[in-house]
Amino acid sequence: MRRHIAFDGLHNFRDLGGYRTAGGGTVRWNVLYRSDSLAKLRGSDLERFRALDVATVIDLRYPWEIAAKGRMPEAPETAGVAWHNLSIEHRPYDQAEIDPDLDPWRYLADRFAEVAADGAVELREALEVIASTDGPLVFHCASGKDRTGLLAAVLLGLLDVSDEQILDDFALTELATERLIADWRAAHPGRELRWPGYGRAPAEIMRLFLADLRATYGSVHAYVTGHVGLDPSVVKALRGRLVEPLGTP
Fold first, then answer.
1. Does the pLDDT value for residue 137 go beyond 70?
2. pTM confidence score
3. Of 31, 38, 152, 224, which residue has the fewest beta carbons closer than 10 angstroms?
4. Residues 228-242 as b or e (16 or more Cβ within 10 Å = b)
């Protein structure tokens, strides 16, 4: 099966299927996707998107980002797709201006911890939408890296996917780094990119974040059912919808 799905204008669209769970099952293919901003869909990319039969989109960007860059295009290929804006980050910061002298991975892990603390309501709503949606779903932010990576990690953790696989999934964004930097430069002509780590997604960020989450809340499951307030029945629904049990033909 394909992990990465090629688009001309999107750089970080991939399937979250195939990861093994602790119970011996696997995350279902062709049901759950993560991506960079779908506002970049154009031309033949719209046909590629329609071929995936996506029923629902969760846009994790700020409303002001959507106002500036647009949401998913309104086109025949996107007709009927449900769209939800759930901005999980509440304290904006400019990654291009991160101090190069800081420990960058510790800095980003701390920002992830802020999102986990601040965005409980939106994260709960996102997980409820994923659990209740019929048909394939994609969630995204701007680059499909940090906010998208956090939701993917929490969701995979709830499905009992190992940390090793969660870290590996997060780090796959590194394959898109050069194109994400090129997008930034095209959008900001004449501006200096001060932080040399822009667009990077090393596994160390996610390792630090998961360790911090467990130190604060006990476990991914305790964080989601406690701080986020997700009903345990929704966790069960997520597993039923997204996990192919061991021995399924």
1. yes
2. 0.97
3. 31
4. bebeeebbebbbebb
